[in-house]
Amino acid sequence: MDYYKMSAAEAAGALQNKEVTSQELTASVLRRIGEVEEEIQGFITLLDENETLLEAEKIDKARASGESLSLLAGVPMALKDNLCTRGIPTTCASKILRKYRPPYDAHVVEKLKETGTVLVGKANLDEFAMGSSTENSAYYTTRNPWDTTRVPGGSSGGSAALVAAGEVFFALGSDTGGSVRQPASLCGVVGLKPTYGLVSRYGLIAFASSLDQIGPLTRDIRDCALVMDVIAGHDPRDSTSVPREKENYTDYLGRDVKGLKVALPRDYFEEGINAEVKKVVMEAVRKCSGLGMEIEEVSMPYTSCALPAYYLVATAEASSNLARYDGVQYGYRAAEAKNLLSLYKKTRNEGFGPEVKRRIMLGTYSLSSGYYDAYYLQSLKARTLIREDFQKVFENYDFIVTPTSPTVAFKAGEKTDDPLTMYLSDICTITANLAGVPAISIPCGFVDGMPVGLQVLGRPFDEGRIFQFCYALESLLGVRNQLPEVNVKRGG
Amino acid sequence: MSHEYEIIIGLEVHAELQTKSKIFCSCPNSFGQKPNTNVCPVCLGLPGSLPVFNESALDLALKAALALNCEISTFSRFDRKNYFYPDLPKAYQISQYDFPVARNGYLDVVKEGETIRRIRIDRLHLEEDAGKLQHDPSGSSSYVDFNRCGVPLMEIVSAPDLRSPEEARLYLESLKRILLYTGTSDCKMEEGSLRCDANISLRPVGSKEFGAKVEIKNMNSFKAVQKGLEYEVYRQEKLLREGERVYQETRRWFEEQGITLEMRGKEEEKDYRYFPEPDLPPLNITAERVRKIRELLPELPVQRASRYIEEYQLTPYQAEVITSSQGLADFFEETLKGYRDAQKVSNWLLGDVLKLVNEQGGEIGVLSFQPVHLAELLSLLDEGVISGRTAKEVLEETFQTGKAPREVVQAKGLVQISDEKSLLNVIDKVLAENKGAVEDYTSGNKKALAFLVGSTMKHTKGQANPQLVQQLLRQRLDG
Questions:
Q1: Interface pTM (ipTM) of the complex?
Q2: What CATH architecture applies to the domain A3-259+437-477?
């Protein structure tokens, strides 16, 4: 049976009712992988199938012996390949970390292991999570399951495509400027960027430390809440992780949303947003009034500062975070270096791809003496203004709704020569990272057969009510856990 | 030294903080393990690892800052100092740039017990240490030992207030005393737990502008700091006299050759691209925390020394030597609880006691010889139970065995003979045996008395009370 078509919650329910075993679920996704992975190319590392099945067997045995298990125990999943997994290659889709096997597990990996989920493999991404299409992966471009001539978005494109193609029940990604939400939107799945500080970054290989958050990519809202129940919570190993009481996110599902207020910022519906995409999003928004919600237009005047501020902050931090890949302790080391300086230069020149180099150079430049005040410092000020924009809106409204991506998935190769156009893919998503607020993308319809995502932003740590709202919206829209037929369109 | 040029020196001191664990991870803060055995993903800077600040490093830094009379910052944070070097695994050092823990302090520099100058402290900040490179003697390869990565350091930067190489050394000695007193650093230069770089420039006397600043590195002892600076004064003065320019640069001190050589020029100065460390929140410095630490501050060496001069009438020299180590000063005060004469305690402490401590190579206060022992010994002397010579013997025995002086005296039968009758018996014998000396004495040669005292002491194997012997002899001879 095609178990892989179930949502994670449905699969978990079937496991609990002993209608299915974890081995059967795992075998089902492995079969699906066998059918479509050659076309999708969502994995960088696919773990040995027998060992994956052995992990599933362990859970089945534990269940059979009456052990009390977590809800997601036995459910197969994937991790973005910038999350450290002990003894399993963690490459960041970079040549510089091609053979790198971390000696420890990321916090979220520990949590998922404790829960008993079954790791199938590590998902493709743009190198070091820098990009919006997975075309910056040093290995290959992942394809959009809805149309394999198109990109899945990025940087968590591998994670999104795997979930959409039925190759795993859910996946984790990371979101620095939209890297979970934009691919979720382009692949027709749910993707959440939690509040900064809600999920520990320990073991997430850093791109931009003050913006990075780990988030789930799932088939529906319930799955997203389930995964958040596992990965959210304080971790003393991450000093930016916020100590607060753990919530039960699934509790919010099904609660009434009547009277809750939605803000529509006109600044997110103007320039650069495809008219068809806008129409689909607006239709979905209109339906919210049917839920008894109030919807009003607002203005967030500093939105236009977001893109430049983001590319200054993110690249500055990246230039420092990526300096450690120097060929000395681990990872790729260039051969035939004559001295220390040439070791550094050759290693980094050969090990990094063009987009990573571009961002390291940008960041290095903006932090350099004489430029710091004009660039980095200004971007911090802009960041404060953007945060204040959000605070003001959230004084009167519970949520902000926008499109997730200005367009549906674009063709592979379409934007690779023009980095600035590529950067505009993030225009609706980067503000949430700059302000640190939670934001989710949920499927809300289609344009030309390609999925369109709607973004909901909420107050810091208000993930519970975001789920409450989106769960109601999801049932209203009737777009939930829709898997595409994966057709071979390439190469013909 | 010339009177044409004024010497301007500022020092940057790095002191390892005596915390139990490293500054951003839980690896022990210890010295001397096998390479790369005291490490974890965090101090190795592995991808995905994150720093967690060890708050006890801040407590120690605050303690040192208060002892150095600094203003404690209400806002302080970490920054990243970016540069490539194989001993720096993240390729940035977590340090502090524009918001250090403390600023604007001062340190009184002491020479032979007298405060000679007040040197301003510009700033005190926290940072992590780097690893160590080891070069293969063949020159073909180098190895990195990451054990020292993440050891907490505080950097203490003085204002350019020092005016001679000797003053620079005295500043370091005074600073070391304070750090030892406050228990913030063990200041072992040979283990690298205290390191010093110096900035030096010369300017014509009377000039208000500073000359070109030269930074000197690799001075591995206080003496080396003085010698390195003396060489640099000589070098710069020679250049200036000959009408040449002194260039702003970094120079390295070569101890064996006694010279400094250029390491890098001004144009090669690195741009460290400091920016706020996004992985760590600002430091948590509250007034309450500062107040609690202030309460823990011990009496500092300079204050203690002046108290000794005032309270116990010690000489400045005695006071400085005794307060140079906290252990010695504590021993001194502890002894005074059992014996009141501070002058005598000081004499014995700085004389025979320190001599024995040095011979044994231990640390005063830790050895089996305790303050009560010294107090008891001095009381025995005063009571006339033992002679000064015997006292030294008892002291040595107590040092060896830890037995109380009174016990040693009794066990060894060292009690001084103060019984007049038994002494008179001996004296009569001595007078009978030395008729010549008696005649010398009666014919006016008073020196003969000393000979007779000596003979009596010999007969009693040194156990007689010499004052009493002299008195009794006089009675017999004069009477």
A1: 0.96
A2: Alpha-Beta Complex (3.90)
